Amino acid sequence: xxxxxxxxxxxxxxxxxxxxxxxxxxxxxxxxxxVTASYxxxxxxxxxxxxxxVGDGVPIVASLDLHANITRAMVEHSAALIAFRTYPHVDMxxxxxxxxxxxLALIAGRAGRAKAWRQAPFxxxxxxxxxxxxxxxxxYARIPELERDGACVSFAAGFxxxxxxxxxxxxxxxxxTQTEADALADQLMAAVVAQESAxxxxxxxxxxxVRVALARSDGAGRPVVLADTQxxxxxxxxxxxxxxxxxxxxxxxxxxxxxxxxxxDAAAACHAAGEGAMVDLALxxxxxxxxxxxxxxxxxxxxxxxxxxxxxxxxxxxxxxxLGPMALVEIAGVRxxxxxxxxxxxxxxxxxxxxxxxxxxxxxxxxxSVHFRADFQPIAAEILVxxxxxxxxxxxxxxxxxxxxxxxxxxxxxx
Length: 415
Hints:
With 415 residues, this protein is of the alpha/beta class. Helices cover 29% and strands 21% of the residues. The mean pLDDT is 97.
């Protein structure tokens, strides 16, 4: 986040608080992994400024993304930090309600102010923090069992793409006594550490993934989904690598579709040619990924769209999508959905907008790591995680950390 953006937003919040003072409590809807040009811990600095305005006695509660990198400053300057419990994130509203309820309980004296914070000694790859699969599913299911007598517990899996000292998973617990808060935090963190080796899974390269998908989709009646995780635009990818598209074409896949590919020039060429036209394209590879080349060939323009539609899945239900000019193109029986703006392929509406019904496909390759599961897992015969060359490594151990605190394993230790 640029200094200008951070300072403008922080100033607006502080000005509103100063105008409204005194206040009984403060609720902030934050992410928890903000890094600014000047502050490694953006949320910690914002909370510090809010605390300076409202004073030590006013409870400050913040809701956080599941991928928050919780820091000492964030814990110190807040009364409670309450994180999502789902990834894909489909509990944003529920988390906000829990945070508001806890703030009201603090104001009324019905919740304790003792706090405990624990950090895990390893980083969790984004893909394996999904709460629809193990071990995250069972770990998050335990949290409500720990919350009794007004206690509040959160587990944040961390955002491994942030090069800061406090990057990584953490637990925060709040209770009436320090002994209880410590016990709750220790209990949940022990469960997390015990599952370290389980935060990993099978990863395929492009050719292997397509071979397996072709075999397992044969007669399955439902699509095999390929998660192109290292080119996920939700985690720094450009959504323009074509390794999987190339592998599907070379292996003769049919009823296979790749999406959503970000290629402004290709989408424009398709709109200029019109539906039904044949166009010569150099598709993808706009981001100069080392060793990556576009897929060159003659494509049929099957469908065009303006990129204006409404999300229908659990994450984007009712959200207005604006992806710019879109196109569905076909080459050798394989289709690709093109868009002029980057978007993580996490909603089936992105395919239906250009005439593709996802459930009727044999293979679907998605530019996403986990969020796609909310809408696509229910229709999938199987999901394969694919690590084609891309900007966001699935293994945090491949990232060039400089600020990460000593003693933290950059990848989960194998069992």
